[in-house]
Amino acid sequence: MNWNSGEQLHDCLRSITAVSRDGFGFSNIIVVDNASTDGSADRLYNLDLPLTVIYNDNNRGFAAACNQGAAISKADYLLFLNPDMRLFENSLSIPIAFMERPENQHIGIVGIQLVDEKGDVSRTCARFPTAKQFFAKMLGLDRLFPRVFPGHFMVEWDHKDSREVDQIMGAFFLVRRNLFEVLGGFDERFFVYFEEVDFSLRARQLGYSSFYLAEAQAYHKGGGTSEQVKDVRLFYSLRSRIIYGYKHFSWIAATILMIGTIIVEPLSRIVLGVAHRSGCEIAETCRAYRMLWGSMPE
What we know:
- By secondary structure, this protein is of the alpha/beta class.
- It contains ten helices and eight strands.
- The protein has helices spanning 7-17, 62-70, 93-100, 131-139, 141-144, 177-182, 195-205, 230-248, 251-275, 279-295, and strands spanning 29-34, 51-56, 77-81, 85-87, 107-115, 163-165, 172-176, 209-220.
- Helix 4 (131-139) runs parallel beside helix 9 and helix 9 runs antiparallel to helix 10 (279-295).
- The two termini are 25 Å apart.
- The mean pLDDT is 92.
């Protein structure tokens, strides 16, 4: 999915042309452009790829755009790839060979080791969030007492070995097509954020695991185009959190989470902004919460 990603999209696609295709082939590469205004989805056809570009008239969100692209693919595996990714030679051949092994048929989702521009390994795997975890984050307890209130991401693990995990990051999200179809794709109520968490949890409930494969690597810039609009990013993250709570927690826990999100957390975020002496951080928080409060009837 692309939204104003600039040269990142071109770099991502160019990296795909150089990957090893040992043991598999590309059915198609699909770029779904969510009404970009920077021309990033133009001039892509000089690449040696079976490329299809879908131009949306409006920003449909991450989940809807991914479903839109998956709907026209007939491949056995679907790879959802952020435009701020760059693949290496074995970024695809290793995870696909891993999923093809008979003993791994219960693994429905695979992610690989993501590194930054310095080659440092990013800690990208996460636990399924709980109501307790969200409450701790609201109050900053995950930062004050991380051993008692572990955060969403598994930062205590160096990500240098392979293992089954609750959730792998959606920046590189390799899924069996049959699982994607059974689950009905991503839940489009999540405009952006938490859609891959929800998908991974629903897969687990069907008996499929998510696996982090450290033997393969790719470059991930991180932040992506959402760095341009931090207030909007915060708004959608909070909104998706509330949706996730009502979908997977009890009604009472979800309602307490919603009240805490719209009343308690803005105060703690403003206090944090004051402590950081950051007027921008305070302004971004206020704009995000105005959008959130305005969206609550929906």
